[in-house]
Amino acid sequence: MAERIGRRRQIAPDPSFAARFEELTRRLSEPQPLAQARARAFARFFELGIPTRRDEAWKFTDVTRAVNRPMRLAEPRPVAVELLAPYRLGGEQAHRLVFLNGRFAPELSDCARLDGRITVTSLAELARTRPELLAHSLDALDDGRSFTALNAALVEDGAWIELAAGSQLAEPLQLLFITSGREEAVMAHPRCILRLGPACALTLIETHVGLGEAAALTNLVVQLSLAEGAFLAHDRLAFAGANQTLLAKLDGELHARSRYCQTTVVVGGALVRTEQELRIEGAEAECLLAGVALPRAHETVDNFVRVHHRAGGSHSDQHFKSIVADRGHHVFAGKIIVHPGAQKTNAYQKNDNLLLGDNAEVDTKPELEIYADDVKCSHGATCSDLDASALFYLRARGLDLETSRALLMHAFAREVIDRLRDESARALAERMVTARLGERAPLLRAEPLEEAS
Amino acid sequence: MTALLEIENLHARVDGKPILKGVSLSIAPGEVHAIMGPNGSGKSTLAFVLAGHEAYEVTDGSIRFGDEDLLAMEPEERAHAGLFLAMQYPVEIPGVGNLYFLRQALNAVRKARGLEEISAAEFLRKAREEARRLGIGEELLKRDLNVGFSGGEKKRNEILQMALLEPRLAVLDETDSGLDIDALRVVAEGVNRMRSPERGFLVITHYQRLLEYIVPDVVHVMVDGRIRRTGGPELARELEARGYEAFVGRLAA
Predict the structure, then answer these.
(1) Which of residues A282, A316, A343 is at a domain's end?
(2) Would the pLDDT of A445 be above 70?
(3) Same domain, yes or no, for A278 and A393?
(4) What's the ipTM?
C-alpha cells in the first residue's frame, strides 16, 4: 500500500532547486574537487528531501511551506549605508564583515585592522584560491540534515576565519548578515568556518537583519572549532523580516578546557530556526547557551539543541526563554547526551516560557541521555502567564497593569540580554525588545539610575 | 470628622471559602489600630482585601477610604489614593532593580496625585537617606527587587517603600514576623517616624511584642473572620498573658 503523503518524514524538493543548482554550477564553473563536493551535497539534499513534521527533528515546526517553493538565488542588493548604522556593533575597533544576501560586501566591511592574529578570507575567495580546502570542508560536515546539504550545494560566500594559537583579541568580530528582497522570493546559503587555535580568545557578534517585506530564505551554516583553552563569546542577534526565514545551523567542537558562551536574542522573522550540535571532545570544557525569543503574530522561533559530552569533567548549561504573543509559536527541543566515560559531567537545561495569549503556542522537549554514572544533570521547562503575585505587588505600589506587565516581561528577557558579552549588542537587543514589548514599557536598563552628581 | 477608613460588615472569601464574616472597623486620621488574632482568623485576608488582591472576593459589606469607595478601585488606584500594604511575604522579582522600581513606583504615585516627577538626583538623595535610617545598605538598593534578601531585609525594604510613598493609610501585615529584636526596633522606629495627625496605621500582628514598639491607640481581636473584642493597648497585654486559646474559648463559651 502506498504511504500517504502526510505520513512521510520527508517530501521531494521542489524541482526549481535542480534548476538553481544547474544555474549556479554553470555560472561558477569551479574546478573538479569543489564541483564534485557540491554535486555530492546536492544529491544528498535530494536523498534527504525536505523534512516534514514526521521527522523528529522538525516535530513542531512545518518548514515545508517556507522553504519548498521556487526561489531565486539571491543577488547582493545594495543597501544604504545609513540603514546599516544601527546594526554595526562592537565599537570603533571591531573587525566587521558585512554580507548582503549572503555575499561578502568588502565596501561595507571593516577589515583594515586585521593582522596576523586573525586571518579572514571570504568563502568566495577561498573557492577561487583554495578550492580543495573548501571542498574538503564541505565534505567534512554531513549531519544528515537536508539544509546543511543544501547549503553545501549552493553556498556562494561566507567567511573562513582562523585565529593563530594564543591570539587573544580584545576587539570583537562582527558578522553582519543583511537580507533584503524586492518581489520574488530569494534564497542565500552562506557558510562560516571559524577556527580558534589553542588559548585564543574572541568575541563574535553575529547579527541577522531583514529589510523589506519580500520573502527570503537565509540558510546559514557555521562550523566552529575551539582548540585547547580557547574562549569564544558568541552574541547572536536575529531581527529577521516578517516574511523571512532564517535557518541557522551551528556545528561545533570544543576541546579540553575551552569555553564557549553563546547568547541569542530573536526578535522577528516568519520562521527562525537555530539548530546546533556541540560536541565536547576534551576534558573540563565549558559550553553555556542562553537565548530569548519573542515571537508574535504568526512567527515561529525554533531552537534545536544537541550538546554531546564526550569527555569528562566538563560543564554545559542551556537556558532558553520565550515570550510568546498573539499566534506566536516557540519550540525548544534540547538534548544533552553524556557519552560513556564522560564522568564528572555537569549538564543543565532549562526552558522558561511566558504565554501571553490563548492562541500562543509553546512546544518544549528537554531531554537527557546519560551513559555515565557519575554525573550531575538536570532539565526542566516552565510555561506560564505572568506571575500573578508579582503583578499584584507592582500594582499595589502604584504601577498600572500595562506598565507592570511590561516591566515583568522586560525583567524576564533581561536575564538573557544581560549575558550578551558586547555592550553595543546588549544595547541594541534592549532597544529591539523594548520596541516589541511596546513603548509603554519602562526602559530596560542594566543600571537603574545614573549616579547623581 | 470623617473616618480615614470605614469598614462595614465586610464579608470575603477565597476559593469559595468564607474567611471574613462581617468585619466592621473605623480608623480616624492619626490613629494606629492593631489587629491581633490566631492563625487563620482572617487578618491577612483583610489586608489583601484592602489592597485589592483579585483572589479575594468580597461578597458583602463596604469599605470607604476617605470619601471614596475602596472596593470600586483597582490595586494601583488604591495606592495612588494613599493606601499602602506592607506585605508579609514581599515578592521577589528578578530582573527589576530595587532602586529603579522604587523610583517608578514613586513617580506613578506622584503623577496620580498631580505632582511632578521627582528628579533622579532628588530621588537618590531621599532613597539613600531613608535607607540609611533603616539600615539598608547601598548594595541592597542596587540588587533586584527582594531577590536574595533575607526575611528581615525584605521587611525593611517594605518600610523603605512606605517611607518614600508617604501613604495616608499604611497596612502592615505581620511586619514583625521573622525579625530579630534589633530589626524589629529599626522597623518600628521607621513606622513611628511616620506617625502624624493625618496618617493612619493598621498593624496586623500575631504577637504583642511589636506593639511594645509601635504603641497602638486601639486593639482589635479577630477570631474566625470577625472582630470579637476592641480595646486599648492593655488588651494586647491581656492576650499575651492568657494566650489566644483561652481567649477564644472564653469568647466561644
Answers:
(1) A282
(2) no
(3) no
(4) 0.95
End-to-end CA gap in chain A = 81
What pLDDT, in 10s, does the model give residues A266-308? 999 999 999 999 999 999 999 999 999 999 999 999 999 999 9
A53 part of a folded domain: yes
**A241 and A100 inside one domain:** yes
Contact between chains at B104 and A408 (C-beta distance less than 8 A): no
A268/A404 same-domain check: no
Which residue is associated with the grid cell 538553481?
A20
The answer to whether B104 contacts chain A (CB < 8 Å) is yes
Task: Give me B188's grid cell.
Answer: 518600628
Q: Does A410 touch chain B (CB under 8 A)?
A: yes
Which pLDDT tens digit goes with each residue over A44-82? 999 999 999 999 999 999 999 999 999 999 998 888 889
State which of A282, A313, A346 marks the end of a domain: A282
Smallest CA-to-CA distance from B33 within B7, B57, B52 is with B7
Q: Do B76 and A399 touch (CB under 8 A)?
A: yes
Residue numbers in B near A448 (CB within 8 A): 97-101, 103, 142
Output the nine-digit C-alpha cell for B150. Answer: 533575607
Measured distance CA(B36)–CA(B219) in Å, rounded:
7
A450 band by pLDDT with thresholds 50, 70 and 90: very low
Chain A residue numbers touching B120 (CB-CB < 8 A): 449-450, 452
The answer regarding whether domain B5-252 maps to CATH 3.40.50.300 reads yes
A408 close contact with B: CB closer than 8 A: yes
Q: What residue numbers bound the domain in which A413 lies?
A: 388-446
**Is A17 among the domain residues?**
yes
> Angle at the Cα of B70 (from B69 to B74), degrees rounded to 5?
120
- A255 in the same domain as A112: yes
Distances (CA, A) of A21 to A18, A28, A51, A78, A412: 5, 11, 20, 24, 44
Chain B CB within 8 Å of residue A392 CB: yes
State the helix-helix crossing angle for A401-417 and A388-396, rounded to 10 degrees.
120
Q: Total domain count for chain A?
A: 2
Q: With respect to residue A143, please indicate whether it lies within any of the assigned structural domains.
A: yes
In a domain, A339, yes or no: no
Strands of B15-82 (E only): list them: 17-27, 32-36, 56-65, 68-69
Domain ranges of chain B: 5-252
